[in-house]
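Sorry to interrupt, but I need a hand with the structure work. Please put the record directly below this note.
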Amino acid sequence: MKERFDLNDFHCADQDAENDLAYLQKTIDTFNRNYDDTVIYIYGPSGAGKTFLLNSIYKAMACGNSSNRVLLYRTPDFTDDMINALVENSSTRFRERLNRADAILIDDVDWMAGKPATQDEFERILNSFWESDSKLLIVTGSRSPDELKLTERLKNRLSWGKVIGLKKNQDRPKMPWESQLHTTVIDEDGNMLSLGESELEKYIEMNGKLMDDLPNTDK
């Protein structure tokens, strides 16, 4: 994990953000013990710092102790791993890896819109972590839970946990590396697009979904 991700470098927009940052730090310090909340959902507009926070949390958890089993996913990567497991008949091994994790961090849950198979697998993880007091699931998105284009069950479960709403800090200095962050998207015509964070948010808003799951993944 690159050195640039550090919770101490997060620029809070207001007092609420400072309180939320203190809560996240407490959660990290409580790693693998009794959490106040086992499901945390962080949302906010592009540039609010969601991805920075998630990567900083991962760095603090995974690099602080090599025995900590922490998984960090971008939602497109999670979907790819799930589909590959189905194609290779290795779904059991894929789920065992998720079940063994002490913490799972998933970025950009908005990408699950229009992907019922991915949402079903995500709901299974949510239910599993919800029933545990020593496992942690942290998810980020651009919208509040009730505004996500997901199933009602998923929106309800995300809202039951700790919900942190971030505001964009206009005074936050732009890091040199931020302009280099791009996500590759394949549109409905098969064109490959390289989008920055703000461009990606607009793409999701306009299209509602990205690539579909394989046709047989819901059967």
